[in-house]
Design goal:
Length: about 210
């Protein structure tokens, strides 16, 4: 800023030059303050957006944990079905024993035994098919769960890194803004002191002229 003042006709500085200088200084100070406020508001908005993204990532992680709990329940259900099949096989064995005791006739016993063997084989096949299907579902759930958790964890850590970087940058920007405001305040104080000295000088010159 050009702060050269014209000399007054009878000593001191031209009053209009001093007033013009003070007006320009005030306008420039207001403009700098407005720019700094705008940059501070933008940094705060970006920080708020990143915090919202972090909240969304945490919600996704919570949903992933809920799905994991559901998968665990599905595995327990599959285990219960397997236990039921074991009980069915045990019951079938018990029935075979009863048939063997109740059928003294060797031919009838052989026929019943053959039929029972067929039922046992079919039951075993069905049981094995159910167990295989349940095991396949459990393995598929494990794979899907692992992929989901891996993706969520990767996104979560990426977002945390991004938030950390942005928060650091925002803090640095706020510190720079604070320093700028301190410098402006110091400059205005210096200008105020200089103006007071000018006014004291002008008063001294005026008193000297009157004497």
């Amino acid at each position: 800023m050009d702060n050269r003042f014209r000399s007054a006709a009878f000593g001191g500085f031209n009053r209009q030059d001093v007033m013009d200088y003070l007006e320009r200084a005030a306008k420039e100070h207001d403009q700098q303050m407005e720019e700094l406020r705008a940059r501070l508001d933008q940094a705060q908005q970006e920080t708020a957006q990143l915090r919202d993204q972090l909240t969304q990532a945490q919600e996704q992680a919570r949903q992933a944990r809920a799905e994991l709990e559901q998968n665990t329940a599905d595995r327990q259900n599959a285990q219960e079905q397997s236990d039921l099949l074991v009980q069915t096989q045990e019951e079938l064995t018990r029935l075979r024993g009863q048939i063997a005791r109740l059928e003294p006739d060797a031919v009838a016993y052989a026929a019943i035994k053959e039929r029972t063997a067929g039922i046992e084989l079919e039951a075993h096949r069905r049981a094995q098919a159910i167990v295989d299907e349940a095991q396949a579902q459990v393995e598929q759930l494990h794979r899907e769960q692992a992929l989901w958790l891996e993706r969520v964890e990767r996104d979560y850590y990426d977002l945390r890194a991004q938030v950390g970087t942005t928060v650091t940058q925002a803090a640095s920007e706020m510190e720079r803004v604070r320093q700028g405001l301190d410098n402006i305040s110091l400059c205005m104080n210096n200008q105020h002191s200089a103006l007071e000295r000018l006014m004291q000088t002008a008063k001294s010159d005026s008193s000297a002229k009157k004497d």
